[in-house]
Amino acid sequence: MDEIIQKISSCIEYGKINRASPYPPGMKDQDGAYELTRQALDRGISPSEILESGMIPAMEIVGNKFSRNEIFVPQMLMSAKAMNAAMEHIKPFFISGEAKRKGVFVIGTVAGDLHDIGKNLVAMMIEGGGWEVIDLGVDVKPDKFKDSIRQYPGCFVGLSALLTTTMENMKITVKELKEQYPHIKVLIGGAPVTDDFRQKIGADFYSPDPQGAVKYLNTNRVLQ
Amino acid sequence: MKYKVEILQDTGYETIEAEEGSVLMDVLGEKGYYIYSPCGGEGTCGKCLVHIRGKGIVAACRFKIHEDITVILQGEREMSVLGAQHEYTATMDFNPGQPALLSDKPVGCAVDIGTTTIVYYFIDLTNGLLMRTYVDINPQSNYGADVISRINRCVGDAGAVKKLHLLLVESVKSNINRFITDTGTEAKDITAINVVGNTTMLHFIAGVDPSPIAFSPFKPVFTDYRILNAREMGLRINAEAKINLLPSLSGYIGSDIIAGLASLQDSLGGLFLYTDIGTNGEVVLSSEDRIWACSTAAGPAFEGANISCGSLAAGGAICSYKDGKIKTIANSEPDGICGSGLVDIIAHMLSGKLVSPEGKINKPFVVYKKGKSRTISITQQDIREVQLAKAAVAAGINILLRRSGYGYGDVEKFIIAGGFGNYLDTGSAIKIGLFPEQLNDKLLQVGNAAGTGAVLSLKSEYFIDRINNILSRTEYLELSSNEDFMEKFVSNINFKSQTT
Lengths: 224, 500
Ligand code: B1M
Prior knowledge:
The complex is a heterodimer of chains A (224) and B (500).
Chain A: H1 3-14, H2 33-42, H3 47-67, H4 73-96, E1 104-109, H5 117-128, E2 132-135, H6 142-151, E3 156-160, H7 167-180, E4 186-189, H8 195-201, E5 205-206, H9 210-220
Parallel strand pairs in A: 1-2, 1-3, 3-4, 4-5
Chain B: E1 2-9, E2 12-19, H1 24-30, E3 49-52, E4 56-59, E5 69-72, H2 76-83, E6 107-113, E7 117-124, E8 130-137, H3 147-154, H4 158-183, E9 190-197, H5 199-206, E10 226-229, E11 242-245, H6 255-262, E12 272-276, E13 282-286, E14 291-295, E15 317-322, E16 325-328, E17 336-337, H7 339-351, E18 365-370, E19 374-378, H8 380-404, E20 413-417, H9 419-423, H10 426-431, E21 443-447, H11 449-459, H12 463-473, E22 474-476, H13 485-491
Parallel strand pairs in B: 1-5, 6-9, 9-11, 12-20, 14-22, 15-17, 20-21
Antiparallel strand pairs in B: 1-2, 3-4, 3-5, 6-7, 7-8, 10-11, 12-13, 13-14, 15-16, 18-19
Helix pairs in contact in B: 3-4, 4-5, 6-11, 6-12, 8-13
The complex binds CO-5-methoxybenzimidazolylcobamide.
């Protein structure tokens, strides 16, 4: 593999956004994901190669480390920021068609709930996994999810809830979505959510962490 | 028939035997346990209080033994927190007003309803002296550990609101009865009950459905001063006695916080921070004119919940850990780790580099081996829970300062109220980043300020003016819609030193 791709990959793994960023201390004054991705493109490396051999595998390493509890929220967030910096250069190619995404993932925190930190991490990790993410934000009513489902046929839907009280709204949302769009796949997560609860409310998948959701999407996308 | 009496005390523990029906104080006395009882076991002074596991606090001179029990002899420190008078307590002339006129031996009851414990203070309204303090476990605990879980029971279930209301009323009733039995006071002499608590508890005691507090935009049904009729609530005390609920600010800043602030002396002046860390972690910044308040939703980690070996601050809980030396509440064999112990242990792990600044450990840290079967230890997940909780509090402090335009250098005092805050080793709290390093020499632990506020409201009818003054100057910051929160929260999750 090209050395520069390797470098992009480690910038993302360790959260080196750009040259100016002081984090991580061990990579001070080096080029970050932002500069290296530009350089790689300028050298003629294809955007999909950078994405598939550099960025996505790095995010997978990050996601797995997080699942094993080896890193925590701040490190994952730095990695996601580095990934975003690289993505800025790749995005135009999605529009031109030179690079492709795996599908569309619509995510939001359910009605009545304003916690978004976990949801944001999930969104970033899924985007870093090569998906287009439509983030509807917090306090999202079922109708808003439905609008997106109509707008992005074949999308997956993710719901996050952090309060015991809003788990009820998660249940209502799943029910409404499934009634109207029986084939839509709904993923759920958030601190108080469990797999038992998923079964009870008829959602398709529960993941305690972002990487589980990425894996589910990757294995199920052909089926849709 | 003989029963086992296990005795836990500051200095050690032992198990003794007792005859069926024997009086606890006598049994203890025979074994050389000195129980302070100025009335000589007449059941009138209420000084011989001991804690019986599972039964709560009882007068040792009245308690007869009919089963195996575990007695926790109250260390002086427990009572001192509840008594909560300190050099920064506001001085107010004794001026009890109307309730003092309803009887010739009037007694007022101040109640602090916490989500976990309820504290009762009985005040002689002829002279303002504290007659008794009782602590009760909030009987709603079976309905969930935090307010949200309890509210959740009430969503669309008026029966549950009623049930939770009655549980609180039962606690008030039984503690009043206890006081009457202990002191020989007559029911008609109890002429006022003043209540502070978090906003949800105030709704429950008033019998009002608190559901709106749990959903955005978190608007409580009421925050104002409420007067309830004692008789209508089924309390057979003085016929004209009122139950006064002191006013709150918002759904997550209750009258406990406001009364606590009002209990502080004016001479505190200047700019000070105030926090009461329970499940919600309220933080207040007070300047001479304006006050800002927020609730950081820290979570119950410091109350031992979500921690693998966590426990409430009760007998057997590791409450302090210094250089490998363990101290437990009542000096009994370690049973679990309570908030203050948890903070100490993590500070110790940081000093010894057993945990990285990012919160990573290589293997669980064994705090204590309990026989062969059980170890009390700190796991990776425990560290993560503490990181989230302390980051939430630290972020709240950051955001209040930023909002007000002040910096750490401007803060003159940092008041730590509440039980956990009182036992906390402030050095350890700073080490783990719960409190900012910059405020190291400004920390002041004041015990149960909320309770002190409730007591002051009985002693002086003008105390309410202080409360209203505070309310009129306070701005509530809703963190849910605060754009800086995520950044501040995430930047405080690591154990590195704080940033503004
Ligand atoms: C689609 O597929 C998936 C898959 C995986 C998914 C997924 C979706 N979504 C999440 N995941 C998973 O991936 C993420 C990474 O691993 C994880 O996401 P998490 O979100 O679990 O984890 C995040 C990365 C980090 N964790 C968090 O961000 C939550 C941390 C704590 C401290 C917390 C915070 C920060 C906040 N809070 Co709130 N808050 C608490 C929390 C207590 C604690 N110590 O945990 C909790 C959740 N809050 C609580 C409460 C009560 C509240 N909070 C409130 C407000 C806030 C803040 C604004 C202060 C802030 C949120 C800021 C924000 N923009 O999100 C209020 C309500 C707001 C509302 N309606 O939403 C308020 C109601 C009250 C208050 N005191 O203000 C409690 C809920 C109790 C219960 N029984 O439900 C709480 C446990 C604390 C407590 N007091 O006990 C996984 O769950």
